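Title: Request for sanity check on Sensor histidine kinase prediction

Description:
We are preparing a figure and want to confirm that the structure record we downloaded matches what your pipeline produces today. Could someone re-run it with the sequence below and paste the raw C-alpha cells into this thread? We only need the C-alpha cell string, no images.
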Amino acid sequence: MKYLFIFNVISSTLFLYYYIYSSIGVMAELVPYKRNARSAMILSVILNSLISAWVRINNIDSYVAYLLIFLIMLLTFYLCLKTDWQVVFFAATRFVFYLFTARGFVISLYSLIMHQPIRDIKGYSFEYSIIYLLSIILALLIHAYLKRNVLIKSRLQVLFRNKEQVLFTASIKFVLGLYLMILTYGNHYEGNDVWFSLIQLLSCFIVTGIAAFVLENSIRSAEIVEHERQTISLQKQVDMQVNHYHAYQEFTSQFQEFKKEYLENLSKVNELLRKNDTDSVIKILDTMGSSLTRRVGAHHQYSNNPFLDALFQEFANQCRRNDIEFECRVYWDKEINISELELVRIFSNLLQNAFEAVEKLSDHRNININTQVLDEWIVVVIENNFELKEETNNLAKGLGMQVVSKTMEDIGGLYTWSTKENTFRVYLNFPKNN
C-alpha cells in the first residue's frame, strides 16, 4: 500500500507538470512567449509542487489549495506570455476550472461508489491520492477534447481579438468555480452524506454545462463581430473602387474632350504652318496647353497595383479635405500572395491610425508612404508625424494594430514600428513567393 501511495503521488505530480506545460503550450500557439518563459514554467512547477505537498501534509481544505494554484497560474501566464491581462485571467481561470471540476466529478463518484462521506477523505490519505491522480487525468482528457473539437486555434484567435468576450467568459468561469468551492466547503457540516455527494456531482454537471454554453456563446459572438468587421471592410473596399472608377471615368471623359478639340485644331495648325503664320500657330498651341491644364486634372498614380492605387486615391482625397500633405509611391510585386481583403485590413487600419495622429497637429501634417525592394521582400514604410506628448504605445497598439500584426503573421510577413523624435514609422515586410 505504501509503494502504491508513493506511485500515485509521483504519477499525479508528473501529470500535473504535463497539464501545466500543455496549458501554457496551447496559449503559446495564439500569443508569443516572453523571453524568460522557460524560467517561469520551472518556477510554476516548483510552486505548484510545494502547494500540493503543503495541502496534503496539513490536510488543508481543497478550495484554499485551488485558490493558491489560481494565483500561481496567474503569475505563470503573466510571466510566460506577451498578451493582455484579460487573456492571462482567461488562461488561469480555464486551468483551475478544469482541474477543480474534474476533482468534483471524481470525488463525488468515489464517495457514492465506496459509500464513504467526502468529509472523511483526508488530503494525506491513500484514497485521496487516487482521487487526485484521476482528477488530473480527467482534466487532461477534458483539455485535450476541447482543444481538438471546440477550442481550435482559429476560433480562439477570433475570441482573443474580442477582449470583452474573453473577460466575460473568464469571469463566468471564475464565478462558477467559486460556487463549486463554496459547495465543497459544505462537506464540513453534518447531514445526509449521500445527498451531499449527489448534489456535488449534479452541480459539477450543471457548472460544466453552463461553462461550455458560455464559452461557445462567447466564441460565436466574437465570430459574428468578426464577420461584421469583414463585411464593413468589404463595403469600404467596394466604395473605394467605385469612387476610384468615377474619378478615372471623369479623367478619361475630360481627356476625350480635349482630344476632340486637339484634332479640330490640328488641321488649323497645319494650314497656318503652310502659310508660315507662326504667330497664329503659337497662339493656338498656347490655348491648347492652357485648356489641357484647366480641363484635364492631373491623375496621380500612387501604386502599380490597381486595387492599392484605388485605396490610396481615396485616402489622398481624405487628406486633401483635411489639409494633410500625403505623398505615396508603392511598388507592388504580383508574386506577393495576399487577398484584397487582407490588403484592406492592413492598410485601412494603418492609414486611419496615421490620419488620426496627424489630425491632432497644427503644422507639419505629413503622411508619407514608400517602398523598399529587397531580394525576397517588399518593404512598405508608412511614416507620419505625431504629438510628442502622445504615448507611442497608443500609436502601436489597439485593436486595429492587432489586426495588422495578425494579418501580416498569417501571410508570413512581419510588422514592426519605430519612432524618432516626432516621427512614427511602420515597416511592413511582405514576402515574395518565388
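Thanks, this matches our download. The radius of gyration is 33 Å.
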